[in-house]
Amino acid sequence: MLSILLFALASGMALLVTSGGETVRAAEVEMVPDSQTASPIWLNPLKVGIKNAVNRGVSVNTIVLLLLFPLTAALVAFSRQVVGLNGFGIFIPALVSVAFLSTGILAGLVLFLAIVLAAIAARYGVNKARLPYLPRMAVLIWVVVMAVLVLLIFSPALSLDRLVGLGIYPVLLFIMLAESNIEAQITRTWQTAALMTAETIAIAIVASQVMGTVAIQEWVLLNPEIAVLTILGLDFLIGSYKGLRLSEIWRFRKLIDK
Amino acid sequence: MAQLKDILGINARSADFLRLNKKSARRRADDKLLTKRMLRKAEIPHPKLLAKLKSRKAVEKFDWLSLFGSFVIKPVQGLGGQGVLVVRKKLKDVNKWVLAGGKLAQINDLKLHALDIIEGRYSRNDLPDIAMIEERVKIHPSFRKLAIGGTPDVRVIVHNKVPVMAMLRLPTEESGGKANLHQGAVGLGIDMATGITTYGVCKDAPIRFFSDSNKKVNGIAVPEWSKILKLAVETQVASKLSFLSVDFLIDKEKGPLVLELNDQPGLSIQLANHAGLKKRLERIEGLEIENVDQGVTVARTLFASRFAGRVKRTLEGQVVIRNLETVFVLNHDKKKVSALAKLDTGAYSTSIDKEFAKELGLLSPDNVLWEKEFKSALGREKRKLIRLVYWLGGRKVVGRAGLSDRKHLRRKVLIGRRDLRGFLIDPVRYEFDNKVK
After folding, report:
1. How do residues B11-53 score in pLDDT, each as one tens digit?
2. pLDDT, tens digit, for every residue of B245-293?
3. How far is the C-alpha of B433 from the C-alpha of B437, rounded, in Å?
4. Do B417 and B399 form a contact (C-beta atoms < 8 A)?
């Protein structure tokens, strides 16, 4: 399971290089004046290394995303440990946020809705056929892909411009989310599944907004050492929070003296 | 009521308490068969295991027709009450069983359910599982009116050999006969000192009355409370878990039975008790509890509710009364009439003044049991015996009384040893004596 997720993670990174090109263009511009004031390698080893790599043709995009993905993961951890939003683990919200970054929020939501509706419809159909697990999932994916295909065919008519230039990876990531949704429907109730999916999407949208902010992109690119260490520190800080989560304060509000 | 810092949240539960639970002990608590074996070794009462079915072949070979009484089919590795099939009884002469909801099941339905369990439909991670058939408890009379289609259970959270918090869980229509709170069951907080319910919660919202009967949720006395507390501590010691909840069913004849353990109990119990778990856990941290009884005493002392001092009960559930009490006698018209009574442990049977009994209409022929010869300090005499129903110290007593002449005495009823089982008499005569003390 983990290896599949890691593969998807790698593909998610690749998709931004291929399809989300414009997202980090602003940061690229900033690199040029900074390169004139040469900083010593012992003070900024990461920064110097990144600069050399970019000069040799490594995509700035990939580097910015690599630097920001840990921040997304920290955000997901924060929303679980401190806010109390559950979502589907850490990989799915983090990856879906990358998908949102690539498709834009509106187009992403339309795409996801189409995939989930198709998956739910397919599930009810397949349930009657009583197939074993893997063939059943294969049929499910078939139906979902058909739905995406139909959506793509009609997207010019629906004037969803971002969908026209859609890559395959956001689709795959959204299918993963839909699969988790269905699994939750099977093991728990559909209400819980809907709630967890909504929470996942909320976390992913916030994270994608953070990743998409040009100022943040510039800052991590110009101060990679501080950024990387700060994120690591944040992770430990979040992990050591033992107080009540925001959702729990709400849950136990009637217990508390006024 | 509590303060924010008194409440135990998920983060603190994991970081401070679940970490103390060893992995091997946790695995045992998650497996109902291993739990049963542990309880058997520790000689802690638990529901009887009728069969365990490990394979398709075992399901076919099992003699299903041998199941007559009430029983439950459930997964060994189940979670949150899923996959539990409750069977009430077998119909006479036909091979059909009545389920808890009132539906009928054929032998094939039972087999199918067992096969579903074995294939792992209800197990923690979809892995193949074992189906177990367990004897169902006979519901305790004091719970009969509270339970809807299921058996109430009592959950006690134990840490460091001290029972910390407890909850009575009552199945509802919505929870489908199951006692799990997240399935819609009602949870009632329990005062640790007396075993009497305090507040209620249903789906995370506080309730004061049962929605179907409009009865109050507080004031229900959990039977055999002392034994429950003791068994909870014994179970914790045997389980080697540092922080856990122990779920009890209370059988009419066998008393409290340990149903299962949970190494990460839910936190709603705080809502049902209007109290924070964290505060309670902090108060017992570092105490060196030497034996089971000490742990129980600590719990009853530290976690007593404010009303506990007013409850006239001893720790063993005996009602404390004075030797001069007012009783309420049921008259011929089924109305309660108050009367002054004297408790006399020197007398074996109860007697009532003849005139007074006549006034109440208790001398009607259908109420007279028989005539008997009495021996007393004044010699032999023949007395009539009548049926007498009365309330003493809030408890209903159904007994019989001899007729005697107490015309010149203030106390029209004299209660003898025969009716005093379960009471403890405090020889202080009047309120006045109390004040002198």
Report:
1. 889 888 888 889 999 989 888 899 999 999 999 999 999 999 9
2. 999 999 988 999 999 899 889 899 999 999 999 999 999 988 899 999 9
3. 6
4. no
Tokens 């050492």 sit on residue:
A225
User: Do B303 and B165 meet the contact criterion of CB atoms below 8 Å apart?
Assistant: yes
Instruction: Tell me which DSSP letter residue B190 carries.
Output: E
Question: Using CA atoms, how far apart are residues A132 and A126, in angstroms rounded to an integer?
Answer: 10
Segment holding B338, helix H or strand E: strand B336-343
Quote the pTM value: 0.74
Nearest CB partner across the interface for A241, out of B2, B11, B271: B11
Q: What is the residue type of B34?
A: L
Q: Does A242 touch chain B (CB under 8 A)?
A: yes
Chain B residues near any Cβ of chain A (below 8 Å): 1-4, 7, 9-12, 15-16, 204-206, 267, 270-271, 274-276
Where does chain A have alpha helices with state H? 2-19, 25-36, 45-55, 60-78, 91-103, 105-129, 133-154, 161-164, 168-187, 190-212, 214-222, 224-239, 246-251
Give the integer Cα–Cα distance in Å for A179 and A8.
14
User: Interface pTM (ipTM) of the complex?
Assistant: 0.70
What is the CATH topology of the domain spanning B319-436? Answer: Cathepsin D, subunit A; domain 1 (2.40.70)
B16 with A242: Cβ contact below 8 A: yes
Q: Tell me which of 3.40.50.2000, 3.30.470.20, 2.60.40.10, 3.30.70.260 is the CATH number of domain B1-47+138-309.
A: 3.30.470.20
Please provide the DSSP assignment of B257-268 as one string: EEEEEESS--ST
Number of neighbours of residue B370 by Cβ within 10 angstroms: 8
Buried b (16+ CB within 10 A) or exposed e, B14-38: eebbbeebeeebbebbbbbeebbeb
Condensed to tens digits (0 to 9), the pLDDT of residues B357-366 reads 888 888 888 8
Closest Cα partner for B63 from B50, B49, B76, B48? B50
CA dist., res. B327 & res. B330, Å (int) = 10
Strand B350-353 and strand B336-343: the pairing is unpaired
Q: Which of B258, B242, B81, B216 is nearest to B164 (CA)?
A: B242
d(Cα B251, Cα B254) in Å, to the nearest integer?
5
- Tell me whether the CATH fold assigned to B1-47+138-309 matches the one assigned to B319-436: no
